[in-house]
Specification:
- The protein is α/β, with parallel strands linked by helices and 239 residues long.
- It folds into two domains: 84 residues, Rossmann fold, CATH 3.40.50.2300; 146 residues, 3-Layer(aba) Sandwich (Rossmann fold).
- It contains ten helices and ten strands.
- A seven-stranded mixed sheet has the order 5-4-6-7-8-9-10, sandwiched between helices. A three-stranded parallel sheet has the order 1-2-3, sandwiched between helices.
- Helix 1 links the parallel strand 1 and strand 2.
- Helix 2 packs parallel to helix 3.
- 41% of the residues are buried.
Amino acid sequence: MDLIVAPQSDSALAARRATRTIPIVHVVAGDPVADGLVTSLARPGGNLTGLTVTPSPEIVGKRLELLKTATGASRVVVLWNPARHYPYVELALREVNAAARALGVQLQVLEARGPDQFEPAFAAMVRGQADALLTFEDSTFWLHRRRLAELEAKHRLPTMHDLREFVEAGSLMAYGPDLADLFRRAAIYVDKILKVAKPADLPVEQPTKFDFVINLKTAKALGLTIPQSLLLRADQLIQ
């Protein structure tokens, strides 16, 4: 083949283990440098290049701040998938803990490797008397976003995710990059490489378009009144 598109960090790492010569374009890598995909964003240095899904780990602190402003939560659960235990996740965990201390929020960190572990995780949230939920970026969560939305509604847990698709599936809020925009921009990399550009010479780009989306129907079902200040900041309100 002439080129491989491997969207996430894990698939890109798997592709690189298979070949060091075929060009690889990643689309939603967490932190390509920390995850070991490229030498630097400006000079990738190998057969991989593409886009990163987050500007920096600090974005998880911003999500926690928005979640607290919307809900007044003092006890928040962080849900992540340990199957994707890359350096970027460690950075994000440190960042969210620092943000929690600054915001006066008590954190509980729980794991879920797949949909079969969602129910036990939510049961643990209820036992811990969680006020709200914050999820970390994960393709498994994204694939099963409707199931997560169902459990959030069942256990009345307002949740902040990273992508608008979660909110469209019924979750309360999301703040993060526009996924469709990243994939459109990835096509530019594919075009350049197929026209003989080298991945090592194409800098990795960070997201430039971010969406803050709130599902007002979900807020009403949860009995939440979202502050006007957040409603004015939202890029989209789902009725």
